[in-house]
């Protein structure tokens, strides 16, 4: 007996529909968790971003890191921050949030034990401004 092909859609069981919905929901959740929403990354006061740039220059951060708007020095001991945009974990371990970034910038060994970045002689307020500056680099 020959099989006749039908143009009508096959009916799926409730279980297979539920499984497909769960798979789609899981994929959407994983995708959303990969990157913070753009609005959350760019809500910093421009004055805080500029103060952060000034702190970075005064604290000598460019001795170890390269920055897009600091001409010299262009350090190579730490990661190049010319394209820092807030993605990925901080130091490969910490969730990349403004609070975690400020804590890491101020005292990396306390924020992530074993970090080779030294504690910096900056205040909490200055560390928040540096975080704003680092998140703002992607806007340049």
UniProtKB/TrEMBL annotation:
Give the source's domain of life in one word.
Bacteria
Q: Residues in domain Cytochrome c?
A: 47-138
This protein's name: C-type cytochrome
What Pfam families does the database record attribute to this sequence?
Answer: Cytochrome_CBB3 (PF13442)
Q: Which UniProt keywords apply?
A: Heme, Iron, Metal-binding, Signal
PROSITE patterns cross-referenced by the UniProt entry: CYTC (PS51007), PROKAR_LIPOPROTEIN (PS51257)
Task: Tell me where the signal peptide lies.
Answer: 1-28
């Amino acid at each position: 007996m020959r099989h006749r092909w039908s143009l009508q859609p096959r009916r799926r069981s409730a279980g297979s529909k539920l499984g497909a919905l769960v798979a789609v929901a899981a994929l959407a959740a994983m995708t959303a968790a990969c990157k913070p929403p753009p609005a959350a990354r760019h809500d910093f006061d421009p004055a805080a971003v500029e103060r952060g740039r000034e702190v970075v220059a005064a604290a000598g951060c460019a001795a170890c890191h390269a920055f897009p708007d600091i001409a010299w020095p262009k350090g190579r001991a730490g990661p190049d921050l010319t394209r820092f945009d807030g993605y990925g974990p901080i130091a490969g371990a910490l969730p990349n949030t403004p609070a975690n970034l400020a804590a890491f910038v101020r005292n990396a060994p306390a924020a992530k034990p074993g970090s080779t970045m030294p504690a910096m002689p900056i205040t909490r307020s200055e560390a928040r401004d540096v975080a704003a500056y680092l998140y703002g680099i992607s806007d340049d």
